Amino acid sequence: MDLVPALEEPLRQPLKSVLGPATAKVMAEHLGLLTVGDLLHHYPRRYEERGQLTHLADLPMDEHVTVVAQVADARLHTFASAKAPRGKGQRLEVTITDGSGRLQLVFFGAGVHKPHKELLPGTRAMFAGKVSVFNRRLQLAHPAYELLRGDPEESVETWAGALIPIYPATAKLESWKIGKAIQTVLPTAQEAVDPLPDSLREGRGLVPLPEALLKIHRPHTKADIEDARSRLKWDEAFVLQVALARRRHADAQLPAVPRKPAPDGLLTAFDARLPFTLTDGQQRVSREIFDDLATSHPMHRLLQGEVGSGKTMVALRAMLAVVDAGGQAALLAPTEVLAQQHHRSIVEMMGELAEGGMLGGAEQATKVVLLTGSMGAAARRHALLDLTTGEAGVVIGTHALIEDKVQFHDLGLVVVDEQHRFGVEQRDALRGKGKQPPHLLVMTATPIPRTVAMTVFGDLETSVLDQLPAGRSPIASHVVPAADKPHFLSRAWERVREEVENGHQAYVVCPRIGDEEDDPKKSAKKKSPEDEAEKRPPLAVLEVADQLTKGPLQGLKVEVLHGRMHPDDKDAVMRRFAAGETHVLVATTVIEVGVNVPNATAMVIMDADRFGVSQLHQLRGRVGRGSAPGLCLLVTEMPEASPARQRLGAVAATLDGFELSRIDLEQRREGDVLGQAQSGARTSLKVLAVIEDEEIIAEAREEAAAVVANDPELTHLPALRTALDALLDEEREQYLEKG
Predict the structure, then answer these.
(1) Side-chain-side CA neighbours of residue 403 (13 Å)
(2) What distance in Å separates the CA atoms of residue 449 and residue 665, rounded to the nearest whole number?
């Protein structure tokens, strides 16, 4: 994070290398570590005490691990093989123990001599390798190892209590080799320039950065590790929040056209024809949005709300307000199916107000046009003309809206649906189509915990819709353990038939389409029965639809929907399902967002363990959209004790998306959630955990806002400026600027 000459020094350079060229090469290629500073910021993942051995029972399969353990016994076997026909083949089997569990190490051929001499019973060492199973027992084949020898002067207690840092490592470079490389460059930590302003650091009792780096890599006590981590967490939170605060500050300086709806215009006419009243939440959020639209700098707002909380209604009212004020509004949807659905439902909701310039159109009406990639040339020309002349106040489309040919008369508002599916470049290109920067409303149905919103969308103001409109029905969710209790699965299909007999419809969701070419190499390998459930290909739409039609759902009208179908076919399938002509729709996750069929009451998700928590929550939101209660069945073959089953249990236990997103985050690593907001940053979050460190993030945000308000250019804080430059290398700087 520091651009100081000593810390900027490359690890690999032609004349004098800080490390050996081979080590430097592996660090660059496998760990992304290029400079001395990068290496100092490669923190240990955990620490082992020499006297305390690792829990061997908890080792993950197929992962590269480092363990500290003691040799229990070692045996050399000879055997005959093709290479050594006279019984001269040698195999060394070493058993290591942590006092409770055991782990087998094996060495073959010429590789047995050194370990045979060194790994004597009682010897302690660090072992690194990939965990595999042989004869139902865990083993490491040809592990690298480093003997743990005590200093002759050292007492047993000191030796046993010493903390050994275990670094994130690769098969090409063991943890202890990384540790040795870090010890080589550790003296340069003294030259690290501290990005935290002195007043902040002293006020919060944080150790200086050089001291934190020494303590994290060479701790004497557990308190040293705590001191270092507290300090380094603050660095990460504060520098990121300063970046976001500067962006908020810069956005506030941009000019935008204030958009205030006309008193008796389109919005008033629309509200008058609504057959229901808006929820308190919708009214509150609408007020926040209208206040933003009335200002002379661009709105940047994130609107998050549960599936079905009425976000589209709030967005549509904002769009109509802008049209009222003489501007145009664009709604950007991630898929054609969704764009078509939005267009259909908005035209329906607006009625004659969507028929501007047509016979029967209302006086305040405007035109609502659709623009997607698969439209015919004539329809497309028409739509483009309506946009250029301003005839169309509202346009709904996919990324086809972003193309150069598309010109607006006066773009005042951009609404982006399902933010996480759009690249920043795409959002930026659309915003560039306004004469002045248009206002921006970003919508997501994936509930984001407050801290993630502050860390990733910290430059956007956030509005939350957390109550469901009246008339929405509760959704009952259950896990169906297909392997343990096959009769539960039979009952699931009976439930689907019952829903259809009662005049309703159902979805069946599968992870895969099923027309992929199977890789013959993959299927040739023999698998153990334990692997079968884990490794078999996920269930596919085409196969499942076929089995259901011939089996448990025989006689019902079953159709399929997936992403590789022609857009017209997809639209036709969705229309038939919406019209109630199809009983059961077997689909991939193309139905995850925006599909609205109130008569669909049941959903069966096959191989539910293959989906993420947020995705399951999104999918489930497709049922229970009418007055009849919804049912969601999560089918899995995972055993009861597995983490996958616990995850499904959590989804079945609550309908609160914010609660689920926290669970999801705690189980996965933040990287998945921070996604592109952290891309391009070599120093993205290493010690900061978004959920655990909520307080630090909130405090860092306040401190950062105060610092930027006083000194937007950070003129008086050169060290902080330097840290920002390191965080925002060019790619990331562009990302943040585009917002």
Answers:
(1) 11
(2) 9
Q: What is the pLDDT of residues 173-187, one digit of tens each?
A: 888 888 888 988 888
How far is residue 238's CA from residue 53's CA, in Å, rounded to a whole number?
A: 36
Helix (H) or strand (E) holding 105: strand 102-108
State whether residue 237 is helix, strand or coil.
Answer: helix
pLDDT of residue 163: 84
Q: Residue 180 pairs with which residues in a beta bridge?
A: none
Which ranges constitute the DSSP H helices of 369-456? 377-389, 424-431, 450-456
Torsion (CA) 712, 716, 718, 720 in degrees, nearest 10:
-60
pLDDT for residue 531 is more than 60: no
Cα–Cα distance measured from residue 106 to residue 103, given in angstroms and rounded to the nearest whole number: 10
For residue 110, the tally of other CB atoms under 10 A from its CB is: 8
Rg of the chain (C-alpha set): 30
The helix/strand/coil state of 19 is: coil
Residue for token pair 């489309």: 397
Per-residue pLDDT reduced to its tens digit, 579-615: 999 999 999 887 765 567 889 999 999 999 988 887 8
Report which of residues 365 and 290 the model is more confident about: 290
Distance CA 581, CA 323 (A): 37
Percent of the chain with pLDDT over 90: 31
Pairing, β 64-79 against β 102-108: unpaired
Looking at the DSSP bridge assignments, the partners of residue 603 are 507, 632
Give the chain's largest Cα–Cα span. Answer: 99
Read off the pLDDT of each residue in 249-269 and give the average, rounded to a whole number: 88
For residues 239-253, average pLDDT: 86
Task: Provide the pLDDT for residue 149.
Answer: 75
Q: DSSP letter at 365?
A: -
Residue 244, amino acid: L
Question: Nearest Cα to 271, choosing from 170, 350, 358, 360?
Answer: 350
Residue 285 CA, chain-centre distance (Å), reads: 26
What's the CA gap between 507 and 621, in Å, rounded? 12
Q: Where are the beta strands (DSSP E) in 324-402?
A: 328-332, 367-371, 392-397
Among 209-218, 313-322, 728-737, the minimum mean pLDDT is found in: 728-737
In the 8-state DSSP scheme, what is residue 537?
Answer: P
Cβ neighbours, 10 Å, residue 536: 11
Helices 222-253 and 730-738, interaxial angle, to 10°? 50
- Please state, in angstroms and rounded to a whole number, the distance separating the CA atoms of residues 108 and 695: 53
Task: With a cut of 90, say whether residue 568 has pLDDT above it.
Answer: no
102-108 and 89-97 beta bridge pairing:
antiparallel
Q: 737 near 274, Cβ under 8 Å?
A: no
Contact assessment for residue 7 and residue 37, using Cβ atoms and an 8 Å cutoff: yes
Tell me how far apart the alpha carbons of residues 344 and 566 are, in angstroms, rounded to a whole number: 19
Q: What is the rounded distance in angstroms from the CA atom of residue 642 to the CA atom of residue 145?
A: 32
Q: Output phi, psi for 349, to 5 deg.
A: -65, -35
Least confident of 64-73, 404-413, 529-538: 529-538
With 0-12 / 13-18 / 19 or more C-beta atoms within 10 angstroms meaning exposed / middle / buried, residue 523 is exposed
How far apart CA 609 and CA 613 sit, in angstroms, is: 9
* Distance between first and last Cα of the chain: 22
Work out the mean pLDDT of the chain and round it to a whole number: 82
